[in-house]
Amino acid sequence: MEPKEGVPSRRNAADGDPLVSPAAILEGLPDAVVAIARDERIVFVNALAEELFGYRREELLGQPVQRLWPERVRARYTDNMRLYFATEHPLRFSTDAWGVRRDGTEFAGEMSWGVVESTGGPLLLAIGRDATERRAADERIRALAAMGERALGGADPAELAADAVALVRRTLPVAGAEVRLAHGAALASDGAVASAPLRLRIGTGDEMLITPDRRLTDEEMTVLRAVANILTTAMERLRGEDRMRHDALHDPLTGLANRTLLRDRLDHALAQSEREAGQTGVLFLDLDGFKRVNDEHGHRVGDELLAALGGRLQAAVRPADTVARIGGDEFVVVYEHADEAGALALADRLESAIAEAVEIAGVEHRLSASIGIALGRDGADGLLRDADAAVYRAKAGGGGRVEVFSPR
User: Fold this and answer.
1) pTM for this one?
2) Which of 349, 329, 347 is nearest to 282 (CA)?
3) Within 13 A of 287's CA, how many CA atoms are on the CB side?
4) 387 and 280 within one domain
5) Rg of the chain's alpha carbons, rounded to an integer?
């Protein structure tokens, strides 16, 4: 069997017959092979090269090799090829290279190049494979690693969600991707997901919706699960931080504001009153006879009663007002844009909320409160002190009363 023209062969020294057909060897390689002569024309391609570039063999033999290179790199590749042929010692090395298929699409190749001697003169052999998928996989791994670092570093979950959607759309065959919160709002979205067939859970209630263009491979599904896990870490961290911030500013029994948040809200209300030349009201509530509940029924019942009253008090005020529990059976309400008539009306609503019976463990409890009111805009400490003095007077008057502070 004669070797193809221009392709080197190895001959038996005794009888001169070829031991192995070089063409057969090149056909048997697991990669695409293209051989180029010094005149820059193709003299050999194997079956995998036909498959890679989308041409039949007869369409390539004798053609300039430049037709296999994208126009944007053609001049550089041609200069390099000429340099290889001009170098005294043959070069053999591996590199990344770009190719162009018959249909005009480009691909990233992983190629080994080398100049070899043949009976017809030096040939440049290019042996390689399509590395597009490998590059895409490498890009996904790098992007996932960067997302993971940002998640651990405390990046904003909304930004991470947007990055995740962009990564999925850029590196996977999907028509749409969305990160959706448990209550239904989209945190980040791109493409069509109205009837997304693929849903991945993110933590306890959020999810990532994916509309794939085709059935995803195991590796592609692994990428999606990794994205979901990273977002789970970020969302849990955010919720953990939210819980810590909430716990730092709220009473653990009733969920109302604590002293720290009360002071912040009061300072804010006073600053607004100063700008608008208005008044801020402070209502100090002290439950009457609450110690008796603890003594007769135990602290567990007392805690349940306080928790129930906390919800009622919150429901009795306007959304802009703040209800705080400052200890034991004492509560404070910050009443913005206040006047005396409005403060008295609010005190009446609070009294009514407290007076309504609360049933705990089959026992009905009825309470009342003494309420002290202070109005002004001259400082938080002064308003709190004046409201405390007013509630003391209400207590001294028998309880179940409302007193508005006035200097004596």
Assistant:
1) 0.52
2) 347
3) 25
4) yes
5) 40
